[in-house]
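Posting this for the archive.
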Amino acid sequence: MTEAAPSPTRAHEPADEFLWLEDIHGEDAMNWVREHNASTDAALVNPAYSALEARVLEVLDSADRIPMVSKRGDWYYNFWRDEANPRGLWRRTSWESYLSDAPEWDVLLDVDALSSAEDAQWLWAGAAFLRPAPGEEYRHAMVALSPDGGDAVAYREFDLATRTFVAGGFELPAAKTRLSWVDADTLYVGTDTGADSMTASSYPAAARVLRRGESLAQLAAKEPLFAVPLDHLSGGVSHSSTPGFERDLAYDALDFYNSRSYLRVDEDWVHIDVPDDMSVSLHHEWLLLRPRTDWNVSGTVYGAGTLLAIELDAFMAGSRSLITIYAPSAAQSLQSWSWTRDFLLLNLLSDVSSKILVLDPAADWAASELDACPPLHSVDAFAVDDEDPDAGNDYWLVASGFLTPTTVLRGTLTPRGTPGAAAALVREAPSFFTAENYCVEQHFATSADGTRVPYFQVGPKDLKLDGANPTLLSGYGGFEVSLTPTYSGSVGRTWLERGGVYVVANIRGGGEYGPSWHTAALQENRHRAYEDFAAVARDLSARGVADPTHLGCTGGSNGGLLVGNMLTQYPELFGAISCGVPLLDMRRYTKLSAGASWMAEYGDPDVPEQWDFIKNFSPYHLLRAGVKYPATFIWTATSDDRVGPVQARKMAAQMESMGIPVWFHEALEGGHAGAGNNEQAARLHAASHEFLWRALNGQL
C-alpha cells in the first residue's frame, strides 16, 4: 500500500504518473529500485573507485579516532564501530583508563553479536539512563535499537551490572517512541498504541504512565497523562529527577518552531506563560528563555536570539523581572548553552567562528570569555557532569577546523567563574591528509537583495584563479541549522587531495546569525536561501575559483531540496549536482513519512495561497523540457522514515521520462543518514564525490 491516499489533483495540474513509486516496499517499486541501483553500480564501480572507497573506509574505521564519551557516575560511556564491529560496541571505561594510550573497555553490548543471535539487523540508537539513588551507581538503562536505521526504534531495559537485558523488564516494539524514567518501576511513554496515538507528523500525540510488568495493550487502555491534538507535531512528558528539583514537564509541539510547556503542579498542568515561539529551558531553580522573534513584556522589548533568565518559582508566581544574560549583535549569535554545577557556558558564533562565554549567576551573571577559539574554527564547550561533587565545574572543549583534526580537552571553571588553568588535552584525532598544503579562507557573496552571505573556501595554497578548479559547494539553509568548520578526513581524501576546492555556504534559513537569519527564508521567503546559494556560486566564478562547468554542489535532506532547486532554477551555474535523501515533491511532501512536521518551515501545499508560493520551489514541478540540466546523482534510503525515499524515486523517474540523464541509488537500510555502518557510509560518501569528480572533469 502507499503511505497515504493520493490527494485530489487540481483541475489545472497534470496527473502524477509516478505515484506508484510511493509504495515504498511494493514489488514494482522495489524492482525499479534494484534495476537503478544495478545501473548506477555498473557506471560507478571500477578499480580506481574501489580504492577510493577503501581509503574512506580506512578513515571511518581508524582505531586512532577519538572515542567520544559521556560521563555517568564513575564511568565514561562510548559507542564504537570499526571493521571488526560494523554494528558496534556499547562500552565504558574509567577516567584513568580513558587517559591512557590503550583504554581498557568494559563491553556492555555487542550489537553485531545481538543481531546474529536474534537473526536481526539491529542498529544502535542510544540509551536513556535511570538516575540512581544518592550514593549508588547507575544500574539500569532503556536501550534503543533501530531495526533498519530509521527513526522508529525498539526499547529494552538493560542491566549495566550484569550486562544483559532485564528478563521481564520494560520492552517496547519499534515506533517513534518518546520515554522518560520516573523511578525504577515507572516510565512516561509516548508511542504507537493504535488509532489516534500518533500525530499526522508520525510522532506521539500522548504520554501515558507505564509501570513495571504492564503490557503495551495495558498502556493503550490507560487515560493519557497528557495529550495534544493530532494535527500538532507531537506531545509528551518528561520527568526531572534532579535531587531537590524533581518535577514533571509536558510539552505540546504545535509545529517545528512553536510549542507550549506545562509544569505539573498538584496534579494539574500549568502553562509556562510565554509566546509559543519561545525556547524554554529549565535547570535547577532557573528558567531560561530565548525568543525567536522580538518579545514585548510590559513595554520592554527583548530581541530575537536574546537569552533571558528568571527564577522559575518567581515566574510562575507572576514576576516578569527578566534578566538579559546575553544579547546578540548583528554578527554574533547564540548556538547552545550548558550548565556546570555553578556556571553557564554559552557557545556563540561570530561571523561563523566560535566564541565561548562563561556566566556566573551568583555574581549577577558576570561574563568572561574562554580563550579557546582560534579564528575560522568550531569549538563547543559543555559540562562533563554538573552533579559530580568533585568535578561539577569541569567542562569539555571539542575543537575542529577544516584542516584541524578534532581535539578534546578538559578544563575546570574556578569559583569566580573564570577559567582555571588552561584546558588540558585529552584526545587528538589523527590527520588523514596533508593539511599544510591547503588553506582556509572566508569570503562574502552579495545576494539578490543585497544581503552579505558568508562562505568558507578550502583549497590549495597555490590555487590558480583560472576558473578550472573542480569545486564542490555544499549547503543546507534550513531549520536554523548552522554549518561550521569541521574536519573531515574523508573530504580531504576524496576531494582536496585530488586537487579540488571545497566550499561551505552559510545561507539564510540556517542559524549562523541567529533566529532572524532563519526566519528570513521561511515559507514565502524560501527563495532567499536559493538566491544566497546562487550568489555564492556566482562569486566563486567571478573570483576565478570555478566556472560553471567546474562547479558542483551537494546537499542532503533540506539540503537536497536546496540543490534540487539549483538543478531546476539555476542549471546554468553548475556542472554537476549530488542530491541526497531529499524533499523534492513539495505538492505531496506533507503526505509522505514525517513531512507534515515541516509545514512551519515550508508551508502547507493544501492551502491554495500557500501552494502559490510553494510551487515555486518544488523541483518535481519545475522540471522543463528543452533545458540543459547539469549531471545529477540522486540518492536515498528505503528505510528513511523521516523524509522517505519516494520523492527521490519520483524525481529520478520524472527526469528519465523527459530524457534527462540521472544517476540514482537507494540504500536498503541506514535511515535518513543513508548508512547503518561504516562500510555503507564510506560507499555513500565515495559514490557522491566520485560522481561529482567525474562530471566536473569531463569523465562521465
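The first helix runs from residue 27 to 44. The first strand starts at residue 70 and ends at 72.
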